[in-house]
Amino acid sequence: MARSLDTYDLISFDCYGTLVDWESGIVRGLKPLIDRLDKLHPLKDDNIAILQRYMYHEHRVQKAFPTLKYASILSKVYEELASEWGLRETITDDDNESAAFGASIGSWSVFPDTLAALLELQKHFKLVILSNVDAESFSKTLAGPLAGFKFDAIYIAEEIGSYKPDLNNFQYLVQHCEEDLKVPKEKILHTAYALVHDLVPAHKFGLSTCWIERKPNAMGGELSQVQGQLSLDFRFRSMGDMADAIRGL
C-alpha cells in the first residue's frame, strides 16, 4: 500500500529547478552569447535546445571538476558554450562575461508558489536542502529570492565534495539527517524536478521520492528517459500542489 504524505518527518529538496526558476535564470544569464548568435543559427530562438546544451556541458564539467565551486562550474560552462557556438574569441578577460554568469545565481527568482508552499510544509516537516552549489552562491539565494525563510539544514556540493547524481551526496544527506536532525532514512522524502540528477539516484539509494513536474522542463528530464530506473512515491505539478496535498490530510 502506498504511504501517505504525512508519514514522513523530513522533506529534502533540490533547490535550483525545484524551488528556484533555474531554467529562466540560465537563459537570462546566457543572453550575451545568445544575442551574438547569427539570426539563422538553429539555437537562436530555441531556449529548450539551449538549455539542453547547457546541461550537457554542465554534467561534463562537474564530472571533470567535482570539487570546483559551482560558480566556477557555471563560468566554465559559459566558455564551453561560447566555443561550441563559435563565439569564444568574443569573450575577453577584461569584460568578465563568464564570471558574471557564474555570479548570477543569487539573481535567479523563486517560482511564484515556492515561499507559500515552504511555509505550509514547514508546519508539518523538517525541511532540508541538498544542492549542487557552493556556500557563497547559496548564501546569495538565501539573502535574495529566499530571504526570510529558514531551512532546518543545508547540505551543498562544496562541503560534500561531489555533485549529484553521485550517490555520495545522498549518503551524506541520510547520514547528516540522522546525526543532525534525528530523522532516519525511512522518514525522508526527497523532492525534486530533476529526474536523472536527483530522483533516480535517490531511488537507487533507497529514499522515497517526490517529483515536482515543473513545465517547461528542459533540464529536469522526462519519465520516458528513465524507464526502469525510478519508481516515484509522489508526483505533483508544482510546490503549491504539494502543499495543498498535505493541507488536505
TrEMBL record:
<keyword id="KW-0378">Hydrolase</keyword>
<dbReference type="GO" id="GO:0016791">
    <property type="term" value="F:phosphatase activity"/>
</dbReference>
<dbReference type="InterPro" id="IPR051540">
    <property type="entry name" value="S-2-haloacid_dehalogenase"/>
</dbReference>
<dbReference type="InterPro" id="IPR006439">
    <property type="entry name" value="HAD-SF_hydro_IA"/>
</dbReference>
<dbReference type="InterPro" id="IPR023214">
    <property type="entry name" value="HAD_sf"/>
</dbReference>
<dbReference type="Pfam" id="PF00702">
    <property type="entry name" value="Hydrolase"/>
</dbReference>
<dbReference type="InterPro" id="IPR036412">
    <property type="entry name" value="HAD-like_sf"/>
</dbReference>
<protein>
    <submittedName>
        <fullName>Haloalkanoic acid dehalogenase</fullName>
    </submittedName>
</protein>
